[in-house]
Amino acid sequence: MSNLIAEIYDKIDKKNRIHAKKLRKNLAGYDNNYFLEADAFIAKYNKFLDGNGKTIDYAIDCYLKMIRDMIDETVDFMYTGKYSSTTFVEVNQRVYANPEVMEYFMHGLLMSQFLWKHHYQIFEYFVNTLPRYTKNKKNYLEIGAGHGLYLSKAVEIFDKDCSFSVVDISPISIELAKKFVDDRRIVFNTLDIFKFNEEDKFDFITIGEVIEHVEDPLSLLRKLRSLITDDGIIFLTTPTNAPTIDHIYLFKSIREIQDLIHLAGLNIASEKSFCSEDVSLEKAEELKIAVMYGAFLKK
Fold first, then answer.
1. For a Cys staple, 243 with which of 49, 73, 89, 98, CB 3.0–4.6 Å?
2. Edge-to-edge strands, sheet with 186-190
3. What total number of domains does the chain contain?
4. Residues 70, 138: one domain?
5. Same domain, 109 and 162
């Protein structure tokens, strides 16, 4: 194991041995590319933290606090079969409009990209598949940039003359993404996507783990369809059975996501699903275990 990622695992082990043991189980399934990507990410993240007067220990504490939240949410979900919040008003008061919660939650999510197997796998799918869709793409939109990891890769992969726009309802997410991805080509908009109207259509749109945060994901998908060019591409991710403090819309199966995509007038060009645990997709659905779904969509 490389030094940087090893340090993260060792620090987590000292604070939460049971969780560290769970994370270490995944290491045997990773190839060398994982460690190269993880080290590059951690080096960049350390620089970002240092520039903001924070350390990797702070980030780990944020991550473990997020884990505790998720355990509470999961216990409730197993009993009720529902997410604890069902409206945006609830989640906005609880999370998005609460700087203290957003701070640790966003850092926790950023850490999870290389600590959770299914988060890394969906990120790897994006990075490996994206190059086949970048030809002649001149403008890129990301909705809900969050921590900025996907945006940072898009900036690397798309041509130098590509322009980039970001729309996010959370000022805290916008500020985090701005600091994590420092590129003058990016225009950041703190705005509800439903109020975002551009005369020009976008050649590529990324929307990672957003549609489960809204009450009406079908309307959001139709909005995306209206924003892409005729030969444009949308990269979408969303989980099934994934209770967290800010999830609203519950997808119980991959089929429900696929049906919604088609109902919105979109077609699936490529798709992948990754389980959060070492079980089949069928078993995950039966046991209500989280699965991450990702797809490249077109009109």
1. 73
2. 186-190, 163-168, 139-143, 202-208, 228-240, 291-298, 267-275
3. 2
4. no
5. no
Residues 275, 254: contact at Cβ < 8 Å?
A: no
Structure tokens at 96: 């998005």
Residue type, 195: K
Amino acid at 137: K
**Whether residue 19 is found in the same domain as residue 129:** no
One domain for residues 21 and 87? yes
Q: Which two tokens stand for residue 146?
A: 């969050």
Rounded Cα–Cα distance for residues 162 and 38 (Å): 26
192: which 2 tokens?
Answer: 């509800």
Cα(256)–Cα(196) distance, integer angstroms: 27
> What distance in Å separates the CA atoms of residue 230 and residue 57, rounded to the nearest whole number?
46
Residue ending a domain, among 70, 96, 115, is 115
Q: What are the pLDDT tens digits along the chain (299 aa)?
A: 567 888 899 999 999 999 999 998 888 788 888 988 888 888 888 888 998 899 999 999 999 999 999 999 999 999 999 999 999 999 989 998 888 998 899 899 989 999 999 999 999 999 999 999 999 999 999 999 877 889 999 999 999 999 999 999 888 888 888 888 888 889 999 998 988 877 779 999 999 999 999 999 999 999 999 999 999 999 999 999 999 999 999 999 999 999 999 999 999 999 999 999 999 999 999 999 999 999 999 99
Q: Which of 57, 85, 115 is the last residue of a domain?
A: 115
Beta bridge pairs of residue 139: 163
Q: Residue length, the chain?
A: 299
